[in-house]
Amino acid sequence: MTMKFLVCISKAPDTTSRIAFTEGDTQFDANGVQFIVNPYDEWYALVRALELKEQHGGTVTTITVGQADCDPVIRKALAIGADDAIRVDANPTDAMQVAGLIAEQAKAGGYDVVLCGKETIDHNGSVVGGMLAEMLDASFISLATSLDLEGGKAQAKREASGGLERVEATLPVVVSSAKGMAEQRIPNMRGIMAARTKPLNVVTPGGATEGTGVSKFELPPAKGDCKLISADTPEELVRLLREEAKVL
Question: What pTM was computed for the model?
Answer without folding.
Answer: 0.86
